[in-house]
Amino acid sequence: MASYALIKFKISNDFSEWEQAFYAAQPMARSAGIIELFHGMAEDDPQTCFVLCHVPSKEAMDSFFAEAGAEVAKSGHILESTEVTMLSN
């Protein structure tokens, strides 16, 4: 069974600025086993973003955010706004 995380959060900058930092962080995420499948913004609120990723487990994702939280916050991601929904198939 595969595990996925749908991550919803707010950003403090514009989407293109956040997206550049997001792309720069991908090697670090991949090394943690987190593979991005989709990222985008809400059509009616460009400050609300979504990322869908394949994750080894919720614990692995939580560990990544604990270790990379400062770097993630630098991207404009407002950490305290983060909502994670775990999915499986």
TrEMBL record:
The name this protein goes by in its record = DUF3764 domain-containing protein
Task: Read off the InterPro entries from this record.
Answer: DUF3764
Under Pfam families, the record lists: DUF3764
